Description:
Blueprint: H1 2-7, E1 11-15, E2 40-43, E3 46-49, H2 55-59, H3 70-76, E4 79-84, E5 88-92, E6 96-98, H4 146-160, H5 176-186, E7 190-191, E8 194-195, H6 199-202, E9 206-207, E10 229-230, E11 240-242, E12 246-250, E13 253-257, H7 269-272, E14 290-305, E15 317-323, E16 329-336, H8 337-343, E17 350-358, E18 381-389, E19 394-404, H9 405-410, E20 414-420
Parallel strand pairs: 1-4, 19-20
Antiparallel strand pairs: 2-3, 4-5, 5-6, 7-8, 9-10, 11-17, 12-13, 12-14, 14-15, 14-17, 14-20, 15-16, 16-19, 17-18, 18-19
Helix pairs in contact: 4-5
Amino acid sequence: MDLVYGSALLTIVSAPDKSDINQSGLPGYRATSQSREQSIRTIGGIDLAVPKPCLEDVLSYTKWDTRGWTFQEAHLSRRSLFFTSQQLYFQCSCGIRCEDTAGEGLAYTTSIKHSTTLWNPKNRHAADAEINWGDLFLSRAPYEADTEALSAHDTFVAAYLRRELSFASDILNAFEGIAKVLAKSMGTPFYAGLPVRWLDHALLWQPNDAAVRRQGFPSFSWAGWHGGAEAPYWLHAGSTRKLVKWWRVEAGMWIECVTDTFESVGKKDALVERRHMEFDGAHLTSAWALATVTEVASFGLSLDVAEVEDAEMWSHAQHRFILDCRGKRAGLILVDNTWAVENISTTRLHNFILLSEAKRCRNDNMTPFDETVYEQRDWCLFNIMLVIWHEHKVAGRFAVGTIHCDAWHAAKPTVTDIYLG
């Protein structure tokens, strides 16, 4: 779809309001709805008019803006003509033109006030970093910085997963066009929806809904779960460091994932280079699988829910402290509400695998560990994954969190082959 929309001279979009969705034909072509009328008054010889909403606001009231498959149509099209219940809009990467506002003489670098009629979220040249935070700029050229590329990826995935699909099996197909463009601009292949070059970061996605598996897709990917997903809220893009090597299944073979490290990990290389990987061929039967040699350790979870800033954002889940062998706070993890009630007790331990190193940069400045026990410093955290074991030593991802590296080492973890499905 990236070639279809990217090569098209113009994409014509029918986007009526949800209240007008049963009307046939393009909105406004035959019958004029009340919403298309514009209030105009003449006062003292001056004609005054109430401007129409900006295109983004108009689309937010349409069914078109909620569908998973139209996400590619919106972001891969070079030029689009929108027939809406309000008016006609033309959009390209340089600007927006519409029926109620004259803007033909404006340069593409003109700064347009956010949410006004001619404001264009696709125009990165006129963007304000403070006001336009979270807007989607799909670059077909290489990103200037790795952190910029990773932030763009995170934003696109989160926006896509807010949309709806009629068939759950379309979860990756409806994103494939976006992934192909990102693969070129980020300089990396994608695997099960994740950028291989930044796999250490991509594995840390957090769910926005209850933990319900999507069958036919791997648990380590957001594609393997129903509902939305976001980038790890406790990390800025680029705040991870590699600790292990990953392999992926492709065409019946184990292929090494060549990943980036944002900073040298020094002595940690001993774990990465422990031995040459010769994984069990029995695990090649899955369409998607990851394998690594990493550390495994067991920890308990707190009975009390951790109080975090903006906790209402996760109505489906709750934060629990990860406890060391003395019952001290050593880390933090977000787990599903139902699972927490059924699986957390004072005696139960849970299995975790080591993923990567993390720089402490939580936006709410909450310390996930007991500072009277563990020292606060920049790179003092490990990203870890709570796993559930299946047959043939295959681990399934359930949740991802952080733990103080000293607590991890004190748990005397064991090194083993891990297969993620």
